[in-house]
What we know:
With 134 residues, the protein is mainly α. It contains six helices and no strands.
Amino acid sequence: MAAEVTMDLPKIEKRLLSCMLCFAVLGLAAVLLKGRLQVGIAFAVGAALGILNFHWLWLTGKALMEVQTAQVPRKTAILLVARYPLILLGLTLLYFSGWLPILPVVAGLLVPGCGVFAESLFLIRAGLHHKQTA
C-alpha cells in the first residue's frame, strides 16, 4: 500500500507544489511579521519564479518520459532551453532596476528545494513504514 502511494506521480506533484506553496506562505508571513513589505514582495517574487521554474521542469520531465520517439516535442525543448535565461533575465532586471532587494528574491528561489526536501522526508517515511509492515 505505501509503495503504491510513493510511486503515484500526480500525487507526488500535487504534494510537492503544496509543500512549496506552504513554505512560500510561511516565509512570506515571517518576513511580513517583521514589518518588511518590500522584502516580503521580493521573497514572493523569488518563490513564484522558483515554483514556476520547478513546474516547467516537471512538465518537461513528464513530456520526455511520455515521448515514444527520439525527437523531443518543440514546446518541451523551448521550455527546457528558455527557463534559465528567463530567470536570469528577471533577476538581472530586478537587480539593475533596484525595484526589489535581490537577496530575498534569491531566498525565494530556494523555496522549491524546501518542498523537494519535505517530499523526500515523506517518501522516506512511507518507505520505512512499508518495510516495517512487510
